[in-house]
Amino acid sequence: MYAELIIKNIGNLITMGEGDKPRAGKEMGEVEIIKDGYIVIKDGRFLEIGSGEIDEIYIGNTTLIKDAMGLTVTPGLIDPHTHLVHGGSRENEFSKKLEGVPYMDILKAGGGILSTVNSTRQASFEELYIKAKKSLDIMLSFGVTTVEAKSGYGLDIETELKQLEVVKKLNEDHPIDLVSTYLGAHAVPPEYIEKKEDFVREIIGALPMIKEKQLAEFCDVFCEEGAFSIEETRKILSAAKKLGFKLKIHADEIVTLGGAELSAELGAVSADHLMAASEKGMEDMADVGVIADILPTTSFNLNKDYACARLMIEKGVAVALSTDYNPGSSPTENLQLAMQLGSLKLKMTPKEVITAVTVNSAYSVDRGKEVGSITKGKRADFVIFDTPNLEYIMYHFGVNHTKDVYKNGIQVVLDGKVIY
Description:
Layout: E1 5-14, E2 33-42, E3 45-51, E4 64-67, E5 72-75, E6 77-79, H1 94-98, H2 103-108, H3 112-122, H4 125-141, E7 144-150, H5 157-173, E8 177-185, H6 196-212, E9 218-223, H7 230-242, E10 246-251, H8 259-266, E11 270-273, H9 279-288, E12 291-294, H10 296-302, H11 309-314, E13 319-321, H12 335-344, H13 350-356, H14 359-364, E14 382-385, H15 390-395, E15 402-407, E16 410-414, E17 417-418
Parallel strand pairs: 1-4, 1-5, 6-7, 7-8, 8-9, 9-10, 10-11, 11-12, 12-13
Antiparallel strand pairs: 1-2, 2-3, 5-14, 14-15, 15-16, 16-17
């Protein structure tokens, strides 16, 4: 019973409480907070959680006991929507965007997503690996311990596989756990503009190989005007579902197309973006338990409207938050900023926000049984924030509040610096 590690004197221990499903509606505000708490860790998992004095039965000669000095502890944060692996960057378009140059004009000049596709196709495996690893280290420094990573900047089979192979290798090498998603249907490459049906067939044709190589467990489609229609999305995701892929949808980001309704129809795990989702779509999602993954840093960066998180919560939808880290619309690895925007712009309470980046994000990447709460038996992923309480993380915005991060009970960030 001797523990390997004990963290004591935790001012506010945000355990998230018990439960085996995403938190929806009012449940998102039901957060267990233990004062003067402690956590006991053995074999990389939580062995005991409590308050006050620690039972001597857990303390042996080799038990490491650390003092949290009255600070705040939460589960490891989870970023459930990123475009982690890509080549290049797009800061050369920044001035044009500020000048109001339309995105389609930038695209026609070889910029936009096509610029990233070209850079990703040209980049070697090693170059993509090094760039993505740097981003993962930044995410880790912000307290993120699990990340979803999509392909989607290849738009050809060779490059999509290269992206997914990079994700697989990083998952083996990096402390952060990576969940891989195939997003072959991210955009239509120029060579297929006049023969889009052929491209849809190519996307579907790659699914058996990706499944056989175990390169992705989710399949995603950018269902949007100018990208993939409802029927095209249904066709791709239905084929993926038959092969055993779990489903995600980039839904109703710009136009009210019906992506939210489709996510419910197909039984997707999550529908993401949703700035233009209809009330009917929200209700359908709530009825079948599709998680709404909202990406406020994208709205912030593009100066666009924010998703109606309050209405979703009122309608009983489980809401998650993520960065949408990508080189075009959301070039940030800072999940704490997404949390702060969740409160400041989406009007979510601090308790709803922490639910959105722990329990609900865990279930949106199908990891809810293992991570997302400080619960006996779950992996010992947790963050010590240099804050007196949960509210302070949202109140004092624009800075990194992380002090220490532990992954599977092993310290990987010390005093804000990555040390693994």
